[in-house]
Automatic annotation (TrEMBL):
It comes from Natrialba asiatica (strain ATCC 700177 / DSM 12278 / JCM 9576 / FERM P-10747 / NBRC 102637 / 172P1). It comes from the Archaea. Its cofactor is pyridoxal 5'-phosphate. SUPFAM superfamilies: PLP-dependent transferases (SSF53383). One of its GO terms (molecular function) is transaminase activity. CDD domains: OAT_like (cd00610). This is Class III aminotransferase. Belongs to the class-III pyridoxal-phosphate-dependent aminotransferase family.
Length: 457
């Protein structure tokens, strides 16, 4: 069947259409949710919207307001909401078989083949895939088991600013203290070292100072006999940090980690849960750095249409598990696997990697232009449609309240955005890869106007 429709035909419109929000029906649903849903619910506290339907890069609330979606369910909907090509395949699979554990199906084998085809560097064609559960946290848990099983060690090394999930093992790797409060102790010998800071600058030899410091800290955790911990079984790293503020490391950082892992018989595990499947203009963000990881974790966009699925792709040399070495009841979600296949095919057919690269350059360029007259903008970062705009106050301190104000202003004018950063002072933009040029222009201008209004009154 043809791989369509074109990206221009996926959406409700190219522009938002919003009255006073939240409207009465949304308000009613929000109130009902507060009465019966968990107190752990977070997102409606910041953006009071009740969703009704969605297409492409647009969503409609219960009152008929139409928004441009620059959030995509935290980077889940790379090929857009309700993509017909993806949904047609998913619906057919639902009619056939849904829950397959790990019995072979065409959907399972075809998705593995697709992932092997697009895998980074030396993993391409030389890798295996394991499905453990429906989330990114599940994929991270599998990677911890892989590293421990291969090395016989139990130490874990991750980075300050990292987010890897909230199950016990994944939470041990996550750096944010707010997620760990009341849940310690977690896994033993999980350590965090600095992630490079692009604002530090270079030394007299032209080397990035923060990168050198970060790599030295990693090396000491492995090789310093007084390093304080067992040498780690692996290094877990986001090739571009997401929750940490859309931090893009220097070009040599991942290569340096690769060398340290090789020198110390440890696994280099790259977390592509948010950056994978085309988000940064490459299939995986590690492709930007010409480094082959030992394993990559993925979820989010892997289900194509928002169906939950987590997976780990790893070099076949590490496939020494026996039967049942890593399990999970929902490791055979066939409709989600079809969703992943069709999403990859749609990205290939419509050259969305180049599209994401070009749109990302345009959007970042517009914010860089605004930064020339807006001192509150400290930095504009990212690759592809993975974009962060950092804000500071007059004294240089993190301007998290300003970001909240910009977010609210954008919502009231029809654009959904979110925040990131250690202090919540980074505006995070992760729209679907099917965002049109016109939507990018309109949405970016609305965001820029919000910034101007919130910084200048």
């Amino acid at each position: 069947m043809p791989i369509g429709p074109a990206i221009d035909d996926l959406h409700f419109s190219d522009e938002p259409a919003v009255d006073d929000v939240p409207g009465p029906r949304s308000t009613d649903l929000l109130e009902r949710q507060r009465e019966v849903d968990s107190n752990a619910v977070a997102y409606p506290r910041r953006i009071p919207i009740a969703l009704d339907e969605a297409r492409g890069a647009t969503v409609r609330d219960a009152d008929g307001n139409t928004f441009l979606d620059f959030f995509a369910g935290i980077g889940v909907l790379n090929v857009g909401h309700s993509n017909p090509y993806v949904l047609d395949g998913v619906k057919d699979q639902l009619d056939a078989v849904t829950h397959t554990i790990d019995f072979p199906t065409e959907a399972r084998i075809d998705l593995i083949d697709k992932l092997r085809e697009i895998a980074p560097g030396g993993l391409r064609g030389s890798s295996n895939v394991v499905f453990g559960g429906p989330s990114g946290s599940d994929a991270i848990e599998g990677s911890i088991k892989l590293a421990k099983q291969h090395t016989g060690r139990h130490g874990l090394l991750a980075f300050e600013g990292a987010y890897h999930g909230t199950t016990a093992g994944a939470l041990s790797l996550t750096a944010a203290k707010k997620y760990k409060t009341d849940y310690s102790p977690l896994l033993a010998d999980a350590v965090h070292v600095p992630y490079p800071d692009a604002t530090t600058g270079t030394d007299g030899d032209g080397e990035d100072v923060s990168c050198s410091r970060a790599l030295d800290a990693v090396k000491r955790k492995f090789e310093d006999p007084y390093g304080g911990h067992e040498s780690p079984a692996g290094i877990w790293v986001e090739p571009i940090q997401g929750e940490g503020g859309i931090n893009v490391p220097p070009a040599e950082f991942l290569g340096g980690l690769r060398d340290i892992a090789d020198d110390n018989d440890a696994l280099l595990i790259v977390d592509e849960i948010q950056t994978g499947l085309g988000r940064t203009g490459e299939w995986f963000a590690s492709d930007h750095f010409d480094v082959t990881p030992d394993a990559i974790t993925m979820a989010k966009a892997l289900g194509g249409s928002g169906l939950p699925i987590g997976a780990m792709l790893y070099h076949e040399d590490f496939d020494t598990w026996g039967a049942g070495g890593h399990v999970g009841t929902f490791r055979g979600n066939a409709p989600a696997m079809v969703g992943g296949i069709r999403a990859i095919e749609y990205i290939q057919e419509h050259d969305l990697l180049s599209h994401a690269t070009n749109l990302g350059e345009f959007i970042r360029g517009r914010f860089a232009e605004l930064a020339e007259t807006t001192p509150e903008i400290a930095a504009v970062r990212g690759k592809g449609l993975f974009i962060g705009v950092e804000f500071v106050d007059d004294d240089g301190s993190p301007a998290d309240e300003l970001v909240k104000a910009v977010q609210t202003n954008c919502y009231e004018n029809g654009v959904l955005v979110w925040s990131a950063g250690r202090h919540g002072n980074v505006l995070r933009l992760i729209p679907p890869l099917v965002l049109t040029r016109r939507q990018a222009e309109v949405g970016t201008e609305i965001i820029c106007e919000a910034i101007e209004e919130c910084t200048r009154g």
